[in-house]
Design goal:
The protein has helices spanning about 10-20, 30-45, 55-70, 80-105, 115-125. The chain is built from 5 helices and no strands. One of its GO terms (cellular component) is nucleosome. Belongs to the histone H3 family.
């Protein structure tokens, strides 16, 4: 069986083919898309009031700290309301600490948060801060 072209080429179709080749498409880079996603996430988390650390993971860390601090004690159970209060306090402290560290990095005319900003923030808060005891 012989195959044939369904229709002959016209002058118009060849010109549209050339115009398609000369047309340039603007592509958005992956970096820009990722940056937009991150900013969208930040806006979402600023509006939300829920806790960010998973409850089960936080409970495991609290129990591990309790065992390290009081090895002879038989207390291994914690009320859910006490865990929630601890978690809210911990998240509030961490958010405030990172906000202050970001301000230090901006003061140093940098965008990236570095370990030296965190060390300086601990020194500026002094010995009365909970993390320095």
């Amino acid at each position: 069986m012989v195959r044939r072209k369904s229709d002959a080429r016209s002058i118009d179709s060849s010109q549209t083919a050339r115009s398609d080749k000369s047309r340039t498409d603007v592509l958005v880079g992956r970096h820009k898309i990722r940056k937009m996603q991150i900013l969208k996430e930040i806006r979402y988390f600023r509006k939300s009031v829920k806790l960010l650390i998973p409850k089960l993971a936080f409970a495991r860390v609290v129990k591990e700290i309790m065992i390290d601090l009081f090895p002879r004690s038989d207390v291994t159970r914690v009320q859910p309301s006490a865990l929630e209060a601890l978690q809210e306090a911990a998240e509030a402290y961490l958010v405030q600490f990172f906000e202050d560290c970001v301000l230090l990095s901006q003061h140093g005319k940098r965008v990236t948060l570095q370990i030296q900003d965190m060390i300086l923030m601990r020194r500026l808060r002094g010995r009365d801060d909970i993390i320095n005891k």
